[in-house]
Each structure stands twice: as C-alpha cells, then as structure tokens.
Design goal:
This protein has twelve helices and 20 strands. With about 425 residues, it is an alpha/beta fold. The chain has three domains: about 150 residues, Adenylosuccinate Synthetase, Chain A, domain 1, CATH 3.40.440.10; about 90 residues, Adenylosuccinate Synthetase, subunit A, domain 2 (Orthogonal Bundle), CATH 1.10.300.10; about 160 residues, Alpha-Beta Complex (Adenylosuccinate Synthetase, Chain A, domain 3). The relative contact order is 0.15. The structure holds guanosine-5'-diphosphate (GDP), 6-O-phosphoryl inosine monophosphate and magnesium ion. Magnesium ion binds next to loops.
C-alpha cells in the first residue's frame, strides 16, 4: 500500500494528473521518473486550473515532489512552471527536489526535434517539439549533460562546446538555423545558479523514504502504448512510460511498487501520428472530442478519438502489472445510445487478441466490437457507486471482467470531488 504508482494505459492524457492529485493527499512523496516537458497533467481545483509539465502533480498538496533521474529537465520550462504555480499561490521552494543525475534539455535538442520532424514530412511522429527524443538520444549516446555536470565548470564548458559544434553541423544539414555556444553557456550558467537550491540526491532520498515506510507515489507521464519498448514504435515517446521505467528512472529496486494504478479513459484518445485501431475519424469522433474537450494540454492540438480498446489496454496491464484501474471521463459518454468496446483486431483472416508489434498489422487492423447500451443520464453528480446509472455500472463491470482488473476509481468530471471510489469490484 505504501509504494504505489499511477500510469496511463492508453496513449496519454488519460487523466493521470487528476488521479495523482487525489492520491497525493494520502502520500508523503510524489516522484516523476520519466519524460519531460512533453507531459501536460491537468488538475482542476475549484475555479483554478493547473497544467503541470515537469513538476509532479503532488505539488498542490505541498508534498515532497521529486523529479527523478530518468526525467529530462528543460530549465526554462521548469522556471516558467514554477512562476505560474507561485503566482497562483502554490509554494514550490522547499517542496521540489530535482535529481542531480537528470539529463538537461538544451536549445539544440528542441531545434533538432522540430527540424527532424519537418524533414520526416508525412512520416513525422507528431512530437510535442519539446526536445525529448534528441535529449534521450544524447543520454544514451553518452553525450548528455546532467544537472550535476552544470556545476563542474571545466567539464560543462568542454561538453557543451563539443555538443553545440556537432549539433550545428546537423542543424545546418537539416536546413535549420544554427545556435550560438557562448549564448547557451551564459544562459545555462544562470539557470544552474537558480536551480541549485532544488538539486538533490533524489536516489538516496526516495530509497530512504521507502526504507522508512513513507508513502511514495510514482507518477508516469504519457501512456503505456507510447512506451519506447512496449508501445507503437516508432510512434512513441523516447522513454519507458509504463511502470517498467520506475526502477531505472528513480533508482529504486524493481518490485518495490506494491500497487500499480492504471488510468484509462472510458474511451480512447491519441495525439500525434501512429496507429489507432479504434479511431473514429468521423462525426462521432468529433462529438467525443467536443464533449470531452479533447485538445492537447501541452500543444493545444486536437486529440484523435475512438472507442475503448481492450487489446491495447490488456497489453498495458500485462507489461506493467496493473493491479487496479481508474476509469476517467465516464461523463463524456453520457449522451450516447450505444457504446462500443473493441475486443479484438481483425488482421487478414485472423482475429488478434494480443497487441501486435508490427505497424502493418496495427495500421490495417479492423476492430471487432461488442456493443453495450448507453445510459443516457448525466453522471457528473455521482459520488458513490449507487449514484451511477445501472447501464454505466454494467459498462464498467464489462471492462473489469474483460481486463481481469478491479475498477477502483471512476471519474465523472475534472474536479477533485467528481470522483467515485468504488471500494472494490463494481
Ligand atoms: P494527463 O496527461 O493524463 O494528466 O491528462 P490531461 O490533463 O492531459 O487530460 C485530461 C483532461 O481531462 C484534463 O483537461 C482534465 O481536466 C480532464 N478530466 C480529467 N478527468 C475527467 C473526467 O472524469 N471528466 C471530464 N469531463 N474531464 C476530465
Ligand atoms: P501526458 O503525460 C499524449 C506524444 C506526442 C507524439 C509522441 C512523441 O500529458 O499524457 P515526444 O514529444 O514525446 O517526442 O512525442 O508522443 N506525447 C503525448 N501524447 N500525452 C502526453 O503526455 C504525451 N507526450 C508525448 O503527441 O505523438
Ligand atoms: Mg496530458
């Protein structure tokens, strides 16, 4: 019970921010372990809306919030986020701890991200343009600059110089503007000074918290189907965004997490390119987009929408050992006569029940649906299971049975109070 995590089990934007905020109240430490400024986690508190990119969603409860070693940190974005929170009365200083081992995002990462996407043309991934892929690429190529390296002047200057020279070569080749080493050095020297009070040995900190039986909550960004190893490669993000990233991304032992809470929308969305077997590229999909306000929290792009996909979700549950599900945005389906659940992918003559690795199968898959009756009743006021219409409970029970996973929470609106804690099976 004391060490838990929240992950998305679809393609991101499942409502992780809201669920983490709720669980943060009963946590001591909240830890982000992967991704970076590509994330956009929304928490609505009364009239105030917070969109968090790098800072864990536990910050609104003034919990100790850790940005782990597996995260890629863009200082410019981090300071903007801190300023926004402080302006809204949320104290960040004293609550935020950034790993000395985390890799830093530099302007050349963002420039390469954008120029690379332009070059890809119709094969583009549809990234957020936040420099995530190029920063992780540098990390694994061992060209990265970590937070701790910013404070070793000689090393920092030498590594930055080599990097800027190399990246400028690449940028020029891509037809993009090149960058100025001295300007970046000046800028990042100032960032390093401002960052100093937040830098910590978070590996020791989080392990100490676990050893002392503190309540630790890991917060994933993106979703399991965007995971670099287990997602729809290459239309994925550049980190392990399912629960498998926790150990390496926070420096904790595998197996320390007792509860894996998978967050799933009552339907499915995806931003950017890549296969999406249950996509509704029609008026019905547009209706879901409008009712669900399905526009990206980070980039404002319209999200693609579709029906619930058991095949993708089951894959996510297995690779991450999801023990319970939080189903969000049930209210968005309130007005539909019929709701569809995808039970398999028809590829050629076969019906696949396991999520395939190859893009061709995913792209040509015809979803096999089971139709269920809609409830045609508003659910936004539901606070207890009995408040939900019988057909809505039947839908949730169907998901539970099909996925072999308890639905422990149901969200019926963006606000904290618009949540039903089921207390077990539906
Ligand atoms: P995250 O990236 O997983 O944290 O999700 P996002 O914040 O990007 O997207 C989820 C959006 O849905 C946000 O605008 C939330 O405020 C909103 N939201 C969360 N839960 C619910 C819900 O149950 N119903 C409705 N209507 N909106 C919700
Ligand atoms: P949260 O944490 C939804 C998508 C991008 C693109 C792909 C790669 O809010 O759920 P990247 O910039 O990471 O290289 O882009 O991943 N993507 C997300 N989609 N929610 C997110 O985060 C995402 N972060 C990245 O749209 O398709
Ligand atoms: Mg989001």
């Amino acid at each position: 019970m004391s060490v838990r995590c929240v992950i998305g089990v679809q393609w991101g934007d499942e409502g992780k921010g809201k669920i983490v905020d709720l669980l943060a109240e009963e946590s001591d430490v909240v830890v982000r372990y992967q991704g970076g400024g590509n994330a956009g986690h929304t928490v609505v508190v009364g009239r105030e809306k917070f969109v968090l990119h790098l800072i864990p969603s536990g910050i609104l409860h003034r919990r100790a919030c850790v940005v782990g070693n597996g995260v890629v940190v863009d200082p410019e974005q981090l300071f903007a986020e801190m300023a926004d929170l402080e302006a809204k009365g949320v104290k960040v200083r004293g609550h935020l701890f950034i790993s000395d081992r985390a890799n830093v995002v530099f302007p050349y990462h963002k420039a390469i991200d954008r120029a690379g996407e332009m070059k890809r043309g119709i094969t583009k991934i549809g990234t957020t343009g936040r420099g995530i892929g190029p920063c992780y690429a540098d990390k694994y190529a061992r060209n990265g600059i970590r937070i701790v390296d910013l404070y070793d002047r000689e090393l920092f200057e030498a590594r930055l110089k080599v990097n800027v020279e190399e990246k400028n070569y690449l940028l020029a080749g891509l037809g993009a503007e090149t960058l100025n080493y001295a300007k970046i050095l000046r800028e990042y020297t100032a960032f390093a000074k401002r960052l100093k009070p937040f830098v910590a040995d978070t590996v020791t900190m989080v392990n100490d918290a676990i050893d002392h039986k503190k309540r630790v909550l890991f917060e994933a960004a993106q979703g399991a189907l965007l995971d670099i190893d287990h997602g729809t490669y290459p239309y994925v993000t550049s980190s392990n965004s399912d629960a498998t990233g926790i150990s390496s991304g926070a420096g904790v032992p595998p197996g320390c997490v007792r509860d894996v809470i998978g967050v799933a929308k009552a339907y499915t969305t995806r931003v950017g390119s890549g296969p999406f077997p249950t996509e509704l590229d029609n008026a019905l999909g547009e209706k879901i987009r409008q009712i669900g306000s399905e526009f990206g929290s980070t980039t404002g792009r319209p999200r693609r929408t579709g029906w619930f996909d058991l095949v993708g979700c089951r894959h996510a549950i297995r690779t991450s050992g999801v023990s319970e599900l939080a189903v969000t945005k049930l209210d968005v389906l309130d007005s539909f006569d019929t709701i569809r659940i995808c039970t398999g992918y028809k590829v050629g003559k076969k019906v696949l029940k396991d999520f395939p690795a190859d893009l061709r199968s995913l792209e040509t898959a015809k979803p096999v649906y089971r139709d269920v009756r809609g409830w045609k009743t508003p659910t936004v006021g539901a606070r207890k299971l009995v408040d939900l219409p019988a057909a809505a409970r039947a839908y949730l029970r169907d998901l539970e049975h099909s996925l072999g996973c308890v639905v422990s929470m149901v969200s019926v609106g963006p606000e904290r109070k618009q949540t039903v804690v089921t207390g077990g099976r539906i």
